[in-house]
Write a structure and sequence with these properties.
There is one protein chain. This protein is α+β, with helices and mostly antiparallel strands. The chain contains 16 helices and eleven strands. It has a four-stranded antiparallel beta sheet, sandwiched between helices. A three-stranded antiparallel beta sheet has the order 7-8-9. It has a two-stranded antiparallel ribbon with strand order 1-2. Helix 2 packs across helix 5. The relative contact order is 0.11.
């Protein structure tokens, strides 16, 4: 890949900065500190412009918080950057850096990439399981142990130097990488998800080009590889382990290698069988509990509406006809009603 140079001026461009502030503000405009900046956006564009142009960039300390994420309530430490200037600077950089990173990105690297989300990945898995039984006889499922905290900052910086030759951009990236005193990349930065995907880009090329794996999908640090030979997949797993050592990473010990026809693949929130797909049990239960709460309350709140629209999306991508008829349809919690609650700005709507 040809190294990209001379684009720091595009990051500093006032139109780019203005767009960055608008993008960073999405979903946060009801916050006082964000609303104040949006109301006087040209003034803050000038402040950010002068800051970037002078290269006198001082990022604020992170606010740390602990959350319990997902159905398994996995504990994660989240780092919350200040909206201004931190998040706005992150967006100013990424608006110009994102197209460069996507050029070398593997086609089925799905997490945090526009138009390549969970449903993009699930469509791929459903297709290959249906169309090519021979080369999807076995599945190898892997993920990286404590991925974000384990990323080596110096290795990450070296990787960027291989694709970028603009020293001002490099210095800005270094500043963001070093903005946390903790090891690895801070979960919570908009840049971190892109930097993390880029960090594993070499692994994607190794798996596809060196190991010649025909079917492979990665969702951040979660990976599934398919093959016709169990012994060959064992060798590939060991090769991946060795490849990750210089990167400062290690595979979790809970990796799985199994015959696809003997059990479903539990991945991306779904359970994949040959010919049909169901939602993961924990997701089914979450929807069921939400519907029960709405019925008991007797009306749909805005928060319920957002959740149910999301759940309708999940269910539309799997075989869920019987589930819908049993747990959703009898209570008349339709997609139309949920959209009406949000569209009209109502806080609630009676069933």
């Amino acid at each position: 890949m040809k190294r990209k140079g001379n684009f720091y001026k595009d990051i500093c461009n006032k139109e780019n900065i203005k767009k960055a502030i608008i993008e960073a503000a999405k979903g946060k405009k009801d916050r006082n500190n964000v609303a104040r900046i949006i109301e006087n956006i040209d003034h803050y564009v000038d402040i950010l412009y002068n800051m970037l142009l002078s290269k006198d960039i001082k990022l604020s300390p992170y606010k740390k918080m602990t959350i319990h994420d997902g159905a398994n309530k996995k504990e994660r430490i989240i780092f919350k950057p200040a909206f201004f200037p931190d998040q706005c600077i992150h967006w100013s950089l990424m608006l110009q850096l994102q197209p460069i990173l996507q050029k070398g990105m593997y086609e089925y690297c799905c997490a945090s990439v526009p138009n390549r989300g969970i449903h993009y990945g699930s469509t791929y898995i459903k297709r290959i399981l249906k169309d090519d039984r021979k080369n999807t006889k076995y599945c190898l499922k892997l993920d990286v142990k404590k991925f974000y905290p384990s990323i080596d900052k110096e290795v990450c910086k070296r990787k960027f130097r291989r694709i970028i030759k603009d020293y001002d951009v490099i210095n800005l990236i270094d500043t963001i990488i070093d903005s946390s005193n903790e090891s690895g990349l801070p979960i919570g930065n908009f840049t971190s998800q892109w930097f993390a995907n880029f960090y594993l880009q070499d692994l994607d090329h190794f798996i596809k080009e060196k190991m010649k794996v025909k079917y492979y999908l990665r969702y951040m640090d979660d990976m599934v590889l398919f093959g016709r030979n169990k012994k060959e997949l064992h060798k590939i797993k060991n090769a991946i382990d060795e490849f990750l050592k210089p990167e400062g990473l290690k595979l979790k010990d809970n990796w799985q290698l199994f015959k696809v026809d003997s059990r479903p693949l539990d991945f991306l929130g779904y359970r994949f069988y040959r010919g049909y797909t169901t939602l993961r049990r924990s997701n089914f239960l979450r929807i069921k509990r939400r519907v029960k709460k709405i019925v008991k309350r007797g009306y749909i709140r805005q928060t319920d509406a957002y959740s149910m629209i999301s759940y309708h999306g999940w269910l539309s991508h799997c075989n869920s006809f019987n589930y819908r008829n049993k747990y959703i349809k009898p209570y008349n919690i339709t997609l139309k009603k949920c959209k009406g609650v949000i569209r009209n700005g109502r806080s609630k709507l009676k069933l």
